[in-house]
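Much of our argument rests on the idea that a fold can be written as discrete symbols. The record that follows shows the chain in one-letter code together with its fold in token form.
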Amino acid sequence: MIKNKGFRVEFILKMGGVNVSKEKNDSIIRETARDRLYTYGDYLKWTDERRYELINGQVYIMTAAPYRQHQKSSGELFRQISMFLFDKDCEVYSAPFDVRFPEADENDEDIRTVVQPDIVVICDKSKLDKRGSKGAPDLVIEIISASSASRDRKIKRDLYERHGVREYWLVNYSEKTVEVYLLNEENTYGKPAVYLEEDEVTVSILSDLEIKLSYVFRESTTPPKS
């Protein structure tokens, strides 16, 4: 058992022969697992109730249950997108949904990155299988929380850019803003476009779809005025 003062150890999980403390601070598990890199094969063997992500072989613990407004915003985004895609080729999925990012042609069990974005849209159905998807989605939406903000803004942004996710949204329900990153001709994101609660945002990969942010960020059950 590895002791970390200042953090409450919830319990010990033995992963791949290494005792790893499960902490509320996700940096602790990365520290305890630093002597090895984990794979999707390891990930499939973890049977406890916690949710994990692997990024370049590093383990990140996800929060047990997001805040209510997080779920409300996610649900409304999913509703608007799924209604638009009802009779179209692209498909939308919400977390928990595993997205694997292979680096080359390695076997599934050897993949070192698997994440669970809040929402993904996938238009290439050959990427879909019974376990989720393998390869870059066309659109990824992450809803920022206090525990995930730094990971979403830097680590995941870099991951999605490197693997060619065409459109990446960062939704901040506390500030009621959306940042939209689009891949440019150099296959980099560059500076994001920022939208506010009163805006309607066109989804670049689905050019006929406009997301009403007033609905995404509303806090009452009464529809906002047009």
Notes: Confidence is low (pLDDT under 50) at residues 1-32. The two ends are 57 Å apart (CA to CA).
